[in-house]
């Protein structure tokens, strides 16, 4: 069994999971998506072109929407299966874990464009339009809808990304009389799941990440990123995908009353949190050295359970004990 066969064998279970959980009529659309993607990127050779962001972007937001006929619900699972593809490439020792995380993050950044174009006929080829019309009429006896062997890919010009030249100084202070009161909501749930925290000023986004992991019961085993104004991304420097290093950027750069900052954990499950700065305490009576969970509502879902959630109970006293140790 060659590498490509092993790769598809590993992915079969994920495809069947989406087929069953998503209620898809058949898994063929997911299989064709992976075949098209691999064939377009490097003719199925599993080469370093799979890591070339310019080629990946071209496949993801241009050629897949233009040529690959999928229903809207299939398009969402097609996006998920492309993330799983890079997991499989990593587990088959074809790419490194760092490359896996970087490409998953890159695909996530293009998610909205991909799904928009997959559902908008203005971006479809005439052949795809004709096929989708036939499908709507109930005629599924059509020929292979794509022919990737016709694509001729010149070696793309490498994009040059600017270095992160802004360096934010670390605070040498161990205590501060300034603090922030924030409410953090795990988005998408009713009744809502949220935590109200008092956190010291002068801490880095890296420490804020660890605080959020504690109060929501996450296990810190997936990628994460903060987004300021939905533009600037802040995350681990070693990931190579964030604009600013979470170890170097302090929350004081962005925290003002009324400011909202997004925190995304796990680019596959997409646990989205919204941080609302409710109050800035300029002069506490006592130095603030650690975060405190003032109030908490809602049990949190278990790791990797998006779509089929299992729930974890929490104890406020235990949360605050762990925050003191953080």
TrEMBL record:
It comes from the Bacteria. PANTHER family: LEXA REPRESSOR-RELATED, TNPR PROTEIN. Coiled coil: none annotated. It holds the Pfam family PRiA4_ORF3. SUPFAM superfamilies: MM3350-like. InterPro entries: MM3350-like_sf, Plasmid_pRiA4b_Orf3-like. This is Plasmid pRiA4b Orf3-like domain-containing protein. Residues 179-314 form the Plasmid pRiA4b Orf3-like domain.
């Amino acid at each position: 069994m060659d590498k490509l066969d092993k790769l598809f064998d590993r992915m079969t279970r994920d495809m069947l999971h989406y087929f069953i959980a998503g209620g898809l009529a058949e898994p063929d659309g997911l299989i064709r998506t992976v075949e098209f993607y691999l064939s377009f990127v490097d003719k199925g050779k599993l080469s370093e072109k799979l890591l070339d962001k310019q080629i990946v972007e071209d496949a993801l937001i241009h050629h897949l929407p233009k040529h690959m006929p999928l229903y809207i619900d299939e398009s969402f699972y097609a996006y998920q299966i492309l993330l799983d593809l890079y997991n499989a490439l990593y587990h088959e020792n074809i790419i490194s874990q760092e490359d896996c995380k970087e490409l998953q993050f890159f695909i996530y950044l293009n998610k909205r464009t991909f799904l928009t174009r997959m559902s908008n006929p203005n971006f479809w080829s005439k052949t795809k339009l004709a096929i989708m019309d036939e499908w709507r009429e109930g005629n599924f006896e059509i020929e292979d809808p794509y022919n990737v062997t016709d694509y001729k890919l010149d070696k793309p010009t490498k994009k040059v990304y600017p270095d992160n030249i802004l360096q934010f100084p670390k605070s040498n202070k161990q205590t501060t009389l300034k603090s922030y009161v924030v409410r953090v909501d795990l988005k998408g749930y009713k009744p809502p799941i949220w935590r109200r925290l008092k956190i010291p000023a002068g801490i880095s986004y890296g420490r804020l990440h660890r605080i959020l992991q504690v109060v929501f019961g996450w296990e810190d085993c997936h990628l994460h990123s903060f987004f300021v104004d939905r533009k600037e991304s802040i995350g681990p420097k070693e990931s190579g995908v964030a604009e600013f290093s979470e170890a170097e950027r302090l929350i004081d750069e962005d925290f003002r009353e009324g400011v909202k900052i997004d925190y995304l954990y796990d680019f596959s499950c997409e646990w989205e949190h919204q941080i609302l700065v409710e109050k800035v305490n300029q002069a506490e009576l006592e130095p603030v050295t650690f975060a405190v969970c003032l109030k908490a509502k809602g049990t949190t879902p278990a790791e990797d359970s998006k779509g089929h959630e299992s729930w974890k109970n929490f104890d406020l006293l235990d949360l605050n004990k762990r925050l003191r140790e953080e």
